[in-house]
Design a protein that fits this description.
This protein has a six-stranded antiparallel sheet, with no helix packed on it. It has a four-stranded antiparallel sheet with strand order 11-12-13-14, with no helix packed on it. A hairpin with a 7-residue loop joins β28 (393-397) and β29. It is mainly beta. The longest helix is centred in the N-terminal third of the chain and has 32 residues, at 2-33. It has one helix spanning 2-33; strands at residues 41-43, 49-51, 73-76, 79-82, 96-99, 105-116, 129-143, 149-153, 158-162, 170-174, 185-186, 192-194, 197-199, 207-208, 220-221, 227-232, 237-243, 251-257, 264-268, 275-284, 287-295, 303-308, 333-339, 345-350, 358-363, 371-372, 383-387, 393-397, 405-409, 417-421. The protein contains one helix and 30 strands. It is 7% helix and 38% strand.
Length: 430
Amino acid sequence: MKKKTSVWVLLLAVAIVAAGCETGSQTGQTAQNKPKDSASTQVNDSGATVDTPEQQTASDGKSSTSPSSTDKAVETGGQTKTDASIANVRMDNITALRLIDGQSGWIGGNGWIARTDAAPSGSVGSAWNVQYQGKGTVQQIFALNGEQAWAVMEDSGSLLATHDGGKLWEAVGTVPEQGQAGFLHFVSSKEGFSGNQYTKDGGQRWSSLPVPSHMVGQPYYHDRQNGWAVTQKTDRSIQILHTVNGGQNWTPVMSRTTEGPLNGVTIRSVERGNAWIELVGDTGMNQTSYSLWHTADSGQSWRTVLANSTAGGGPAPGVSQQDNQVTKNEGTAPGMLYAVNSSTALMGGYCAPCDKPNTIGWTNDGGKTWNNGKQGFDGYGGQQIGMANAKEGWAIFSDSEQAPILYITSDGGQHWTQSHVFDKPVTPGS
């Protein structure tokens, strides 16, 4: 009887142990698959979830937990991607720059947008936070302030926007085809312009504004009523026109003759009645002819700021070959034009055969005098210039074989100091 009882006790013990093992296995699987408690995670500036201090790496260098990499996610343009699908961003070709102030700003490139802000230590622009990853190349970034900004994607014309400093970038619309080459700028959180396209709902819908016939390039609407445009007729006469009633009437405010066709126009108007207008002529032997004009009184009077006539491109548009009184910008082709206000504008120069192909010139007296910078900069892949005000600015020069370099100025372009080299990939949310 005792022997039989012992056998039953042994069988019962084995059953209990087996049940306990199965229960433990199920409990462990449930714990592994259970979502993180919402109170145990935080969201960083890029939208990526990060562990709370209790879950982060312990002081001895060992992780106190071992979460799967798929537990973390980053919000990119309204879409969530796991860490496994997030690529390190190599900033090898920067195609857009916009400053918020002298310490902060956005840049963009092929499929990404990043932001930098003032840091307690380190040089300006030395730390970047990738805020967006997606398809397309960023053509332009425009910031109304540190919270509201828009980005135009060159390949699709898609318009991205952020209203929280870049924590979330989302597609809000598409810049119409007619306005893709225009300079995008907003005058409020809702009202914006791109070429002759106008939006009053932050970029969701666009309508066309009137333009004159025989127009070259894109017009520039400073606001809903005031705009500028350049035309050229078959007789090769150039006209600059101005409207003060939303394009219903265009009034010629300057007329010039040119010996060649007008191949490009860039217009910037940062104050009502003020305009900086670049006219681009012919190109030959790696040389492009161009001129820069300025008015501060709605076109009643004009100043010829620059006249870059070249042997390969011919006379600067609107300026005769014999006119040697107008200042010439450095380089053999025009770089980027950046207008700060009615007094101050900067313009890059580019020289393809030169060892230091990039230069930057400026005026701070409305174009009465032009100053050619004494510094040359590396980079055969494009230049970006941005100013926070008349004194503080950044310049970035890209190259196909070298990392882009960021330079900063605090004296309006007289001196530029190297601040950062984009030679390391950046992880979104870092």
